[in-house]
């Protein structure tokens, strides 16, 4: 799957990009018709510890799924976002299967 990683207000290192790519590749196990995905990594300048925001947008034929999570670390936010996307993609797959 083609994953575009966009870092907003900071430069992202290779380890984080590889982590995001690996986690997004696991989503194909749940729904194999994913066209592409965009991952936006943002850092908010606030005093709270949970200032890392991950927004994932997954393109499937006929739909776009967007999940946004805010956590203390990017890895945690990526995990939570990916789990939410897994549930959405499984629900989508079951919905399509019932209409056939």
Characterise the protein shown here.
With 100 residues, the protein is of the alpha+beta class. Helices cover 38% and strands 33% of the residues. It is built from two helices and four strands. Strands 1-2-3-4 form a four-stranded mixed sheet, covered by helices on one side. The relative contact order is 0.18.
Offer a concise description of the structure.
It comes from Flavobacterium zubiriense. The chain has 100 residues and is of the alpha+beta class. Helix content is 38%, strand content 33%.
Unreliable stretches (pLDDT < 50, length at least 5) are none
The spatial strand order of the largest sheet comes to: 1-2-3-4
* C-alpha end-to-end distance: 25 Å
Per DSSP E runs of 2 or more residues, the count of β-strands stands at 4
- What gyration radius follows from the Cα positions, in whole Å? 14 Å
Order of helices and strands: EHEEEH
Shape: elongated
Beta-strand fraction estimate: 25-35%
Set out the fold topology.
Elements: E1 2-8, H1 14-25, E2 36-43, E3 52-60, E4 63-71, H2 74-99
Parallel strand pairs: 1-2
Antiparallel strand pairs: 2-3, 3-4
Helix pairs in contact: 1-2
Protein name: Ribosome-associated translation inhibitor RaiA
Pfam families: Ribosomal_S30AE
Structural key phrases:
alpha+beta; RHF/RaiA; 100 residues; four-stranded mixed beta sheet; 33% strand; RHF-like; 2 helices; Ribosome-associated translation inhibitor RaiA; 4 strands
